[in-house]
Amino acid sequence: MSKVEKHLGRLLDDYIFVLMLTIIKNIISENKTWDFNRFISFRADHYSENEVLLLNLLGTFDVSVELTKQNVLTFVREVALRVGKAFHIDFPKNISFLTHLTSHVESMIKRLQQSVKLTNPIFKEFIAEHKELFLSVKAACKAHEKLLQVKLSDQEISFIAIYFASELRKKEEALSKKAKILVVCAEGLAVSIMIKSQLEEIFESREIHTLPVREFNTSHLKEYDFIVTTVDIPDIRSHKILRINNYLQKKDIEALQKHLSLKFTNHERTLEKFNPIMQLIRENTLGIKNLSKLELELISVLSRDDHNMPKQSLPEVKFNESHISIVGHIERWEDAIKEGTASLIKQQFITKNYEKKIISNLRKFGPYMVVAPGVMIAHAGSEDGVIEDSIWVTILPNGIMLKDRYEEPIKLILTLAFKSANTHRLVENIAKLALNQEKVEEIIQLKSNEDIYTCIFSSVYS
C-alpha cells in the first residue's frame, strides 16, 4: 500500500486501506498479470468493473483538460434554471441540491470519458411515473450537453432527473402540510376579516386567526407558520411575516403563494387560468374601468365550488334609513369620520372612545382603512367601545383627500361597529360592496336616504 500512498501523496485510513485491498484482490483474481504501477501510469482503452471502482476510489479518473470545473457548474445551473422554470421552482436557490447534483455530474463525466456506462435499474418505472419531468430534464441536458463534451444517453439523464424528482417530492410534502396563519391588522375587525375570508377561499390552511397589532408579540412567531399583515409591525422582523395590501389583490395572492409556499384549494388548476383570462380581457376590451374589481370577482368565481352551497344567514344590525348622512362640504378628514361616529354615539351604539380609536389608528398606521378608490371602512376594535352592532353611512359628494395609495378623494365612508362573533360574513359582503366601483358611484349619486339605504341593504344582504 506504500505505492498507493506515494501515488496519492497522503496516508490512507484503515477503512480505505481494507477497501482497496479487497478491490485489488478481486482484480488480481481476474487478471494474474495485473500490475499496479502500470495501471496508474497508463490509460487503458477498457477497464473492468473492479478497476473502475479502484480508479474512482483513487480519484484518478480525471476530467479532461478542456473540461473545466466551471463547465460543470454552468451545466448544472443552466439545467436547474430551465427545469425550474417549467415547474415553477427556484432550484438554483437550493445550494445543497446544486452541490449534490454537481458531484453526480462530475462522477458521471469521469465514467463516460472512460466509456463506462451505467443502466438505471428503475428506468422504466421512473419514466412511467415522471414522464413530464424526465422530458423537461432531457431537453435541458441536451440544450447544454456541449458544455460537458460527452453524449448523454436517456439512462444517464434519468439519473439526473432523479435528483429533480427528489426535490419535487420534498416540495410536495412541504405544501401538503397545511399552515396555521395569523392575519394582523391595526384592529382585528373589518380589514383583517376580509383578508381572512379571502385566504380561506383561495388557499388551503389548518387555521386562520386575526389579531390587532397591539396584541402581537414574538411568541406568535412560534405559534403560527405565517404572519400576514397590512401594517408595519414595530421592532419585529421575521421571514414568516409578509406585508400585503389592505384587501388581497392579484399581486398579493401571487406574493403569498410564492413567499409562503401556500397551496391553492382544490381549484388550483382553474386559478392557474386566471392570468391568461385577464390578459385576454385587457387585449380585447376597452370599456372596463376597474380591472382590480374584475380581478377579485374573477378569483371569487373561479374558486367557487361548482355545487350549490346553502346560503348563510346574515345577522341583523342597527342600520336603517336614518343611519345615512350626506355632507356637502367638509375640510378635515377627522370631521368626516366624526359625521358617522358622532351619530352612533348619540344613539348610544358606541362610546366616544370608539371614535377616538379610529382617528388615532389612522394617524398612527396611515390610511389603511381606505379599501378601494374613494371608499373607507372606518372601524376600531370591538373592545374599544362597541355597545351594539351598528352601521353608519357618510356620503361626501365633494370628497376629502387622505393621501392614500389610490390618490382619489374619499366620497363614501362606511362606519362599522361590530362586536358579535357572527358578523364576519356581513363584513365580507360590505367589503365587496366597497370594491364595486359602479355600485359605489350609484350610491354617491343617489339623493334620498331611502334610495341609498335600499341600494346598500340589497347589495349587502342579497
Write a structural description.
The radius of gyration is 33 Å and the shape is elongated. The chain has a 5-stranded mixed sheet with strand order 5-8-9-7-6, sandwiched between helices. It has a 4-stranded parallel sheet with strand order 2-1-3-4. The protein has 20 helices and 9 strands. By secondary structure, the chain is α/β, with parallel strands linked by helices.
By secondary-structure content and strand pairing, the structural class works out as alpha/beta
Helix content: 40-55%
Unreliable spans: 60-66, 267-271, 306-311
Approximate strand percentage:
5-15%
Distinct helical segment count: 20
Question: Overall 3D geometry?
Answer: elongated
Order of helices and strands: HHHHHHHHHEHEHEEHHHHEHHEEEEHHH
End-to-end CA span: 88 Å
Mean of residue pLDDT values: 80
Give a short account of the largest sheet.
5 strands, mixed
Number of strands: 9
Order of adjacent strands in the largest pleated sheet: 5-8-9-7-6
Cα gyration radius (Å) = 33 Å
